[in-house]
Automatic annotation (TrEMBL):
<dbReference type="InterPro" id="IPR031705">
    <property type="entry name" value="Glyco_hydro_36_C"/>
</dbReference>
<dbReference type="Pfam" id="PF16874">
    <property type="entry name" value="Glyco_hydro_36C"/>
</dbReference>
<dbReference type="InterPro" id="IPR013780">
    <property type="entry name" value="Glyco_hydro_b"/>
</dbReference>
<feature type="domain" description="Glycosyl hydrolase family 36 C-terminal">
    <location>
        <begin position="22"/>
        <end position="98"/>
    </location>
</feature>
<protein>
    <recommendedName>
        <fullName>Glycosyl hydrolase family 36 C-terminal domain-containing protein</fullName>
    </recommendedName>
</protein>
Length: 104
């Protein structure tokens, strides 16, 4: 993941002052990988989870979450978003590593 942070394109998806978690996304030069970092600074008592819309992915491609194995379509990630699995409470964070699924 270090190569994505050092050499990838950075997208600031949401800032720390809104109702959403703070989210950053790094996308590799060829669009084959993405890293989404999410942070929450305070509690969200009873507020719904808001998906974070991703940017910079290859249109029409599918991406696999390296941790869970779930496959997501780039168009859905861009239009609807990705729900970040943040633990309840203050100062929670998560990292989601997405890898493009090559068509056979």
């Amino acid at each position: 993941m270090r190569h994505l942070v050092q050499h990838g394109e950075l997208f600031r998806l949401s800032g720390p002052l809104g109702e959403e978690p703070t989210a950053l996304q790094y996308v590799g030069e060829d669009g084959a990988e993405a890293l989404v970092l999410g942070f929450r600074y305070g509690p969200r008592h009873g507020l719904p989870r808001i998906p974070v819309r991703l940017r910079g992915l290859t249109p029409g491609a599918r991406y696999r979450d390296a941790r869970t194995g779930a496959v997501h379509h780039a168009n859905v990630l861009g239009d609807y978003g990705l729900r970040l699995d943040l633990a309840p409470g203050d100062w929670s964070s998560t990292a989601v590593h997405l890898v493009r699924v090559e068509e056979a």
